[in-house]
Amino acid sequence: MKKILPLAFLLISGWLFCQSGFKLKVSGDVSKLLELNLTDLSKMPRKEASLKDKDGIVHKYAGVSLSEILSMAGVPSGKDLHGENLSKYLLAKCSDGYQVLFSLAELDASIADKNVIVADTVDGKLLPESKGPLRLIVEGEKKPARSSYQLEALTVGQIQK
């Protein structure tokens, strides 16, 4: 037992060290490139979203509104989301290679009532290592396919003519 404790401490401290170096990257067709670490995100306004798991159990996630992050990067929204800007999209990329796509219009509060957050907690606890440190939560969709684990990058693009 005494030999296991130091090993467990090393594993946990190694995981925490890796997470402390984590940065969510926001790039592409933005006015300001962002690299937000977990501390940056923890200081931003918090929002909650609910999501049902595959067993039908509803979990409460908390984090930062995706629209808040996009606003910090200077992504067009509200009255600026018209004309050419309506052909812009957001590609969310995860560390395992999984990617999901959104139109900017469906994420904009002036057009749709979609609650999308970048969550760091579930049911009041940090996300488990296998699912975090961040998870994109898209509340209200019939399937949780776009609620993606291990979110690492958000890229704004535009459909070419």
Automatic annotation (TrEMBL):
Entries under SUPFAM superfamilies matching the protein: Oxidoreductase molybdopterin-binding domain
Pfam families linked to this entry: Oxidored_molyb (PF00174)
InterPro entries (UniProt xref): OxRdtase_Mopterin-bd_dom (IPR000572), OxRdtase_Mopterin-bd_sf (IPR036374)
UniProt-recorded name of the protein: Molybdopterin-binding protein
All copies of domain Oxidoreductase molybdopterin-binding, residue ranges: 21-140
Superkingdom of the source species: Bacteria
Lineage: Bacteria, Pseudomonadati, Bacteroidota, Flavobacteriia, Flavobacteriales
The organism of origin for this protein: Chryseobacterium phosphatilyticum
